Amino acid sequence: ESHPQWSPDGQQIVFQSNRFGANDLFIIDPAGSQPRRLTYFSSSDRSASWGPDGEILFNSNRFYRQVERDPEIYAIAAEGGTPYRKADGLGFEPTASADGRYIAMERGNCRYVREAYRGPANRNIWIYDTQTEKYIQITTDEGQDILPSWGTGNTLYFLSARSGRYNLYAVTINNGEASEPKRLTNYKDEGIRYFDTNGETIVFEKDTHFYTMPADGGRARQLDIKVTQ
């Protein structure tokens, strides 16, 4: 059971679980409750993220696994129902902007754990503009660019290994055009493995610790986590 994601109002958490075999999506209350199952497909449904109006985006290999390695992008209402294909293009880690206009994703087949990889199979960040129905490549570096995550407005954060280690970067999307990536961290000893943001604060995992930092950059602070029984 992994990949928990808070709903925008903080009242629900969506996560993926293989308790019935392949990964499916479930929703649970933060205070604890019986998880409510959302998807029932025989192949894996994963990498869920909350979109506008309570819609949940996720990855699935439902029909095109025999053609492409990249997964399809689906959506389902948080209340449940029949999932539907959200975009014709394929990509990993779909996430919608707050206004719902853009869907950011990774495209490329190299495993993201290959931090030092540089070449034609690398992952780049793309967006799908739902107004113009166009796919726009945001990053073009030969290194790995992964884990797109929207902040406030049309600020898009992601991890990039272009400097040799995974560090945090940000771009601003304006009418389908992206600004030059701004580097927010400069780690050289060990890269960032995962991060998330609420638009004001970024929390990320590096080495054996969690850190927080302002979303516009600045000094990162290590969290002192104590677990008691």
User: CA-to-CA gap between the ends?
Assistant: 22 Å
- Count all strands and give the number: 21
Structural class comes to mainly beta
Structural shape = globular
Count of helical regions: 0
What does the radius of gyration come to?
17 Å
Strand content: over 45%
Estimate the helix proportion, in percent. under 10%
Mean pLDDT: 94
Q: Spans of 5+ residues with little confidence (pLDDT < 50)?
A: none
Order of helices and strands: EEEEEEEEEEEEEEEEEEEEE
Outline the biggest β-sheet. Answer: 5 strands, antiparallel
Topology:
Elements: E1 2-6, E2 13-17, E3 24-28, E4 36-37, E5 45-50, E6 55-60, E7 72-77, E8 84-87, E9 92-96, E10 102-107, E11 124-129, E12 134-137, E13 145-150, E14 155-160, E15 167-174, E16 177-178, E17 182-183, E18 192-197, E19 201-206, E20 209-214, E21 221-222
Antiparallel strand pairs: 1-2, 2-3, 3-4, 5-6, 6-7, 7-8, 9-10, 10-11, 11-12, 13-14, 14-15, 15-16, 15-17, 18-19, 19-20, 20-21
Write up this protein.
The chain has strands at 2-6, 13-17, 24-28, 36-37, 45-50, 55-60, 72-77, 84-87, 92-96, 102-107, 124-129, 134-137, 145-150, 155-160, 167-174, 177-178, 182-183, 192-197, 201-206, 209-214, 221-222. The chain is 0% helix and 45% strand. The chain has 229 residues and is mainly β. The strands form 5 sheets. Strands 13, 14, 15, 16 and 17 form a 5-stranded antiparallel β-sheet that branches. The chain has a 4-stranded antiparallel β-sheet with strand order 1-2-3-4, with no helix packed on it. A 4-stranded antiparallel β-sheet has the order 5-6-7-8, with no helix packed on it. The protein contains no helices and 21 strands.
